[in-house]
Amino acid sequence: MKKLIFSMHLSLDGFVAGPNGEMDWIRVDEEIFDFVGKLTAQADTALYGRRTYEMMQAYWPGAGEAPDASKHDKEHSAWYNNVTKIVLSHTLKAEGLEKTRVLAGHLSEHIGSLKIGPGKDILVFGSPGAIQSLFREKLVDEYWLFVNPVILGAGISLFKDTGTRISMEFISAQTFSCGVIALHYKVK
């Protein structure tokens, strides 16, 4: 059975973005990009909220073809263009979207069907609004939390108002030279 795996950068105090959505505090480097490449290799479906999907769609389809494209841009662009994209949205229309499905409700039913279908895992990058819905319905199987060495003090909280307790089992931790620690948990 496929797993739904959530991956997100967050601050030490649990924020995924600053008060105005700023993410300039997130530390990434080639070491993290290579690590994330291993995660994406295990997934053939990407799940996003509408805002994150629109941000990804504006950049990744052609990012690997730019003359100054980095190794990461080439690899992630190729992955993005080949995977099925699932978007949680009540406003986005699926017409004309290549390799993209839009889900507007009945998450347990739809995600459950995806999990028992053929293929690799489902990977959720970012999408703090969408992940709240997935939290509430207990649909996430594993978490990769990339904890950045910064305290924001305010912003968009990852775990605010989830309305449910989620018990997890620690699997592993990966420390990166830039100071980020990736914590891997599975839901009990």
Describe this entry's structure for a reader.
This protein is of the alpha/beta class and 188 residues long. The chain has a single domain (4-181), classed as 3-Layer(aba) Sandwich (Dihydrofolate Reductase, subunit A). It is built from 5 helices and 10 strands, in the order ββαβααββαβαββββ. It has helices spanning 30-41, 50-63, 71-82, 107-116, 128-136, and strands at residues 4-11, 15-17, 43-49, 84-88, 100-103, 121-125, 142-148, 156-157, 168-175, 181-187. The strands form 2 sheets. The chain has an 8-stranded mixed beta sheet with strand order 5-4-3-6-1-7-10-9, sandwiched between helices. The chain has a two-stranded antiparallel ribbon with strand order 2-8. A hairpin with a 5-residue loop joins strand 9 (168-175) and strand 10. Helix 1 (30-41) runs parallel beside helix 3 (71-82) and helix 2 packs across helix 3 (71-82). The model has no long low-confidence stretch (mean pLDDT 93).
Name of the CATH homologous superfamily: Dihydrofolate Reductase, subunit A
Helix content: 25-40%
CATH architecture title? 3-Layer(aba) Sandwich
Question: What's the domain count?
Answer: 1
Compute the number of strand runs. Answer: 10
- Helix vs. strand class: alpha/beta
Radius of gyration: 16 Å
Largest sheet: 8 strands, mixed
Q: Helices and strands in order, then pairings?
A:
Blueprint: E1 4-11, E2 15-17, H1 30-41, E3 43-49, H2 50-63, H3 71-82, E4 84-88, E5 100-103, H4 107-116, E6 121-125, H5 128-136, E7 142-148, E8 156-157, E9 168-175, E10 181-187
Parallel strand pairs: 1-6, 1-7, 3-4, 3-6, 4-5
Antiparallel strand pairs: 2-8, 7-10, 9-10
Helix pairs in contact: 1-3, 2-3
